[in-house]
Amino acid sequence: MMSRYVVVVVVVVVGDDVDAALARAGHAREARTPHRVGVIATVVGAAREVQGHMVHDHGTDWRHRMALHRLRRAVVDVTRRAYATTTTAAYAPVFTNALLVIKTTPIAEYTSLIGSGELYQSDRYARVKERHETHKSSVKAIKRMLSDRGVKYRCVERAALKAESVEGCDLVIALGGDGTTLIAAHEVRSTDVPILGINTDPATPSDLAKLYLTNVCLDERRSTGHLCAANRFNAEQVLDAALRGETKPARLARIRTTINGRELEPALNDVLIAHPSPAAVSRYSLKLPGKEDAYFHVRSSGLRTCTASGSTAATYSAGGCLMPYDSTDMQYMDREPIYYDHAPPPSSAGHRFYKRGETMRLRWNSRVGVVYIDGAHVKHDIMLGDDVEMSSDGPELSLFVSPWFKTMRESQGQKLDT
Prior knowledge:
This protein has helices at 2-14, 18-31, 35-56, 62-90, 107-115, 123-148, 178-186, 205-211, 235-244, 314-317, 403-417, and strands at residues 97-102, 152-157, 171-176, 195-199, 230-231, 250-252, 256-259, 262-263, 270-274, 282-287, 295-300, 303-306, 330-334, 351-354, 360-364, 368-373, 378-383, 387-391, 397-400. The protein folds into 3 domains: 1-90, no CATH class; 92-252 and 396-418, 3-Layer(aba) Sandwich (Rossmann fold), CATH 3.40.50; 256-394, Probable inorganic polyphosphate/atp-NAD kinase, domain 2 (Tumour Suppressor Smad4), CATH 2.60.200.30. Helix content is 38%, strand content 22%. It is α+β, with helices and mostly antiparallel strands.
């Protein structure tokens, strides 16, 4: 209990995160290293000295304030080094070279607009800045955790990520949310390099419960990180478990998409094909499986395919089916199809599953169209007459996932059954 008490004292003094500090205290207590006794004594002494300055410093002497600032930094450094000593003594990490893929927040865009006079200082800017600072603080904490554990790392902004960026790395850590994890996955083609997503600015369950309905017309919801194994609150525990080899990444199916034979990025979640105008009709001819030269001609708002990982997203919202996380099937759905002027559509049209090894083929019949891979960030234009093929034969991905990722499908499936 002594180690926990000391860390709580330091937390109160330096304003650190209480939950993270308690977790560090728990790890330090488990390690039981002889060095820990001296560390605790040093921390207690420093904490008491800081508290003494806090009692006697009434803000009248700048020397007192500077001394207080130095002591706060000293306490933080002591606790960091103490934790580094105990954790590195406890295990050797199974991953030693990490690539950090870091989300770029919109703060620079907002700042430039304010600087140019196009946008005045506003509540919105203050919130964007707060979100940016939270993200930045989380990234800094992850870097410190890796350094303390002897893991080398390189950093790349999400927009600058290329396949060459991954070379020489044995672990990719996506720092942002689901979007950053998906972008990182596009450049990882081997299961030998797993991805660990950390949500750097998560919406907590209480946030979600309150932010869907408010008395002001501002949407302050943030990413829930469905594809992230950790968030800024539990990153240390999840990262340690991965580095120790206590948790293993899941192997997930991905969609292989080609346009006229040209292969696109593998999709972990889903692929959407539609006219670039949401008000326009998408026209395409879908080749019916198991029938030679038989096509079903469709007019709709487009079509979507998804993996098991993506079956909880847009496909589910549109009435699709949840799939077990380890399924290798690909689910297909027409979006708002116009069937009223057709004969009854074939049973295989509109909504079906393609097994691994089966390929969905279609011809695009609209003048223009867009193929979206895992959301709006990655897209490819198509034209009248283009041939598109999709299957679940894309390269599998190794992804560290949360327990929720695996269990929620079963719980949701039970609700659907009732």
